[in-house]
Q: What sequence folds into this?
């Protein structure tokens, strides 16, 4: 009888936030979920684009307010470069206008930083859509 191979796909996530503390907390939160791995971190949108091109993440979590290039600008560029990679904006500044701009920039979900449970739910939701 042939032996069956089983394996778990790992979801590779890139975290983009100008705060090292927020990146660490986000990484710890996301890596606590079986099958999720943070493949890299960036401190601004320009660095995010460079790292995404090198690391080929499965999903990217972006802050809005960052130096050099903000999350919306980075999302527009990332969506053009890798349109199949889901983008989540993880921010403290949610408004209806921001959500509309985020959607237009290619972001799949806008999530408030007040709850990591919301972030986990958004990642799960977008990862399932991507796998389908």
A:
């Amino acid at each position: 009888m042939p032996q069956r191979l089983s394996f778990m796909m790992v979801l590779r996530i890139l975290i983009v936030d100008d705060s090292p503390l927020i990146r660490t907390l986000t990484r710890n939160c996301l890596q606590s979920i079986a099958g999720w791995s943070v493949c890299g971190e960036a401190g601004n949108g320009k660095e995010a684009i460079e790292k995404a091109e090198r690391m080929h993440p499965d999903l990217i979590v972006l802050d809005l307010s960052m130096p050099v290039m903000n999350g919306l600008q980075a999302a527009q560029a990332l969506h053009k470069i890798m349109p199949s990679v889901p983008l989540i904006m993880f921010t403290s500044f949610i408004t209806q206008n921001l959500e509309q701009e985020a959607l237009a920039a290619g972001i799949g979900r806008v999530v408030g930083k007040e709850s990591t449970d919301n972030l986990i739910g958004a990642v799960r939701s977008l990862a399932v859509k991507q796998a389908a």
Notes: The first strand starts at residue 11 and ends at 16.
